[in-house]
Amino acid sequence: MESNLEKVLIVGIELPDDIIDIETSMDELQELVKAAEGVVVSRVIQKREKINSAYFIGKGKAFEIKNYCDELDIATVVFNDELTGAQIRNLETTINRKIVDRTNLILDIFASRARSNEGKLQVKLAQLKYRLPRLIGFRDYLSRTGGGIGTRGPGEQKLETDRRHILREIDNIEEQLKEVEKNRSVKRKKREDSSLPIVSLVGYTNAGKSTLLNKLIEFKDEKEEKKYVYVEDMLFATLDTSLRRSRLPNGQAFLISDTVGFVSKLPTRLIEAFKGTLEEVNYSDLLIHVVDASSKDLDIQLNTTMEILKDLEVLDKPIITVFNKMDKVDISNLIYDNKLVDNKIFVSARYDIGLDKLMKLIEELLPQKYKEVTLKIPFDEQGLVNYFMNNYEVKNIDYVEEGTLLEFAINQIDYEKYKTYMV
What does the alpha-carbon distance between residue 387 and residue 401 come to, in Å, rounded to a whole number? Predict the structure, then answer.
């Protein structure tokens, strides 16, 4: 199967002030190429004092890369940083291959994975904004290659139209996204009205967020339907936000929200494009930061996610750091920056290790407090009985002359709302 995949050479620059190790960054780029259905056959790393404004790498290195591509029959060269339109054009002319930068590669993956209408619109908007100043550089290879990595999303015809047409399309998509945001606000209001606490999963892509979500919803009542989310061992296997229901050990129902995964050097325009989706995190009561404990780049994962959460202004919320995939690593060998971690727990979502402890920690840290109450609901208000039965673990139910007696632990919001029914 691999022989049918698009052959790719990846290129990176090592600068004196780099924070992320170049080999680590290139390994991640290789995984991104894999996620875009390509295969990396070789890599080139150049040490430089600064970036070349015309070619990004040195001109001589560009000619070397052309020779590599000729020898290895490589179709595409992917760069580990974002390129300008002039750099794309110069490299494409010199190397005579399709040139894709890291940003375009991630956008390309997003274009192939987005399923919801909102996700597709967000990706298309980000792609158009990215490609607009680079149209000249794109024209050459788009007209010659016939598709593949870096070309999904808005097609050649869109890019060959004039700048004003693209700007109109950007305006049109932004208007559509405003409508989507209105609909999301309505759904969000309904969730807030339900008084169910919301827990959001955040973290690096492929850290195991979707696997963990699928395991946590198994804590639901056996009679309740369990809608699992898609899982695959690949960067950005899922993009669209998923919202599922579960129950805490005390029986309280709560909602779990999955979010798009992060990577290092995540393009600013992508964070902007998915700001609406990521803003769901702002409405969460608690965040679960999932990290891959088996990764040799733990601190990069932790730093990347915490920086994005800082940009979203949600660091004031309670955060549980879940070190996942502990089946692959000895806890005594785990090294990470303690300053980035407050409440932590070690689990293996795949093998159900530590999940009971995680649920207890969620219950403990959720800011909503619960009180043991007995409510008497009049018979002409039985809709309330259904509400409490659906959203709480009712310990005891009894029928008296004046109505239905319910005994359970109620959250503070509902307590204030329904305390007139207290016995």
Answer: 21
Evaluate whether residue 179 is within a structural domain.
no
The reply to whether 143 and 236 lie within a common domain is: no
Cβ-Cβ contacts under 8 Å for 387 (sequence gap 6 or more): none
| Span 38-56, pLDDT tens digits | 999 999 999 999 999 999 9
By DSSP bridging, strand 243-247 and strand 253-258 are antiparallel
Place of tokens 């990846």: 10
Mean pLDDT (the chain, rounded): 84
Are 107 and 212 in a shared domain?
no
In a domain, 394, yes or no: yes
Compare 316 and 277 and report the one with higher pLDDT: 316
Would you report the helix, strand and coil content of the chain in percent, each value rounded to 5? 50, 20, 30
The stretch 267-282 carries a mean pLDDT of 70
- 309 and 412 share a domain? no
Nearest CA among 244, 270, 248, 267 for reference residue 256: 244
Q: Side-chain half-sphere of 47: how many Cα atoms within 13 Å?
A: 2
Q: How many domains does one find in the chain?
A: 3
What's the pTM value of the predicted model, to 2 decimals?
0.74
User: Distance between CA 214 and CA 226 in Å, rounded?
Assistant: 8
Q: What is the pLDDT of residues 351-384, one digit of tens each?
A: 999 999 999 999 999 877 677 899 999 999 989 9
Are residues 150 and 241 located together in one domain of the fold? no
Contact 95, 70 (CB under 8 A): no
Count CB atoms within 10 A of the CB of residue 144.
10
* Domain C-terminal end among 160, 186, 214: 160
β-pairing, 319-324 vs 6-14, is unpaired
Contact assessment for residue 258 and residue 371, using Cβ atoms and an 8 Å cutoff: no
Alpha helices in 230-329 (DSSP H): 268-273, 275-278, 298-311
Q: To 5 degrees, how large is the angle CA 386–CA 392–CA 394? A: 80
CATH code for position 98: 3.40.50.11060
409 and 357 within one domain: no
Judged against a pLDDT cut of 80, whether residue 202 lies above it is answered with yes
Residues 320 and 240 placed together within one structural domain of the fold: yes
What is the spatial distance between Cα 298 and Cα 331, in angstroms, rounded to a whole number? 13
